[in-house]
């Protein structure tokens, strides 16, 4: 079976191990935000051991874009807490590789880049709260990820600006419910970091997301729609560029790692 043969429902009904096997065999390399309904997705960041503490400190100081859900030992490519049988070198549909502030590759696996000094971080993903919003019948639409002028709190070599994922809500009731639901899920970015005019946080053109989007033609924003933005796990990638980090591996936006944990397992009960 290849990705052309899989419907969205097929993808959503898969167990995480089934989907990861599909990816590992090279049979899925596309965006996978609809994979494995109910299971937590994660952003990936891999850095050398020499930078691992600084990056962990960066995450601690910037929990909205970088909520940590798992960290490996140096050289280990199994996520012992969230997916112990998975291989972080092969089980994401696509990766990004950064060297000295430049994006140098977008491979389907990172075996060739792996060595015993690397430490992997899995960070929470907004896909995890999207399922909760839908289950609560919150009416909204996701429009994309954007760079902003919101400065992250620096830590060692890591500094830069936050990326946000932005959604439009039909009514004030929907917006309030979204704040309530996301606030209890700190492992998936928590509550929004900004509500209101996107230009105030440096988003130049709301109709053209500069980091990631599913939709090439965003429908006009209705007068009553409420714009809210959450911290986004693409932030470390922009930080790698700004900070000229010597070496970093990440997920490619929209190509997430699927864990064995249910989204609700990571939420605050």
Number of domains: 2
Determine the CATH superfamily of the largest domain. PSTPO5379-like
The SS-based structural class is: alpha+beta
The residue ranges in which pLDDT falls below 50 over 5 or more consecutive positions are: none
Order of helices and strands: HHEHEEEEHEEHEEHEE
Helix % is 10-25%
CA distance, first residue to last residue: 39 Å
Taking the sheet with the most strands, its summary is: 7 strands, antiparallel
Predict the CATH topology of the largest domain: PSTPO5379-like
**Number of β-strand runs:** 11
- What is the overall number of helices? 6
Report on this model:
With 269 residues, the protein is an alpha+beta fold. The chain has 2 domains: 151 residues, PSTPO5379-like; 109 residues, PSTPO5379-like domain (PSTPO5379-like fold, 2-Layer Sandwich), CATH 3.30.2040.10. Helix content is 22%, strand content 26%. The chain has 6 helices and 11 strands. It is globular.
List the helices and strands and how they pair.
Elements: H1 8-13, H2 16-24, E1 39-48, H3 49-61, E2 68-71, E3 95-99, E4 102-105, E5 118-124, H4 127-135, E6 140-151, E7 161-169, H5 172-183, E8 194-195, E9 226-231, H6 235-243, E10 248-251, E11 257-262
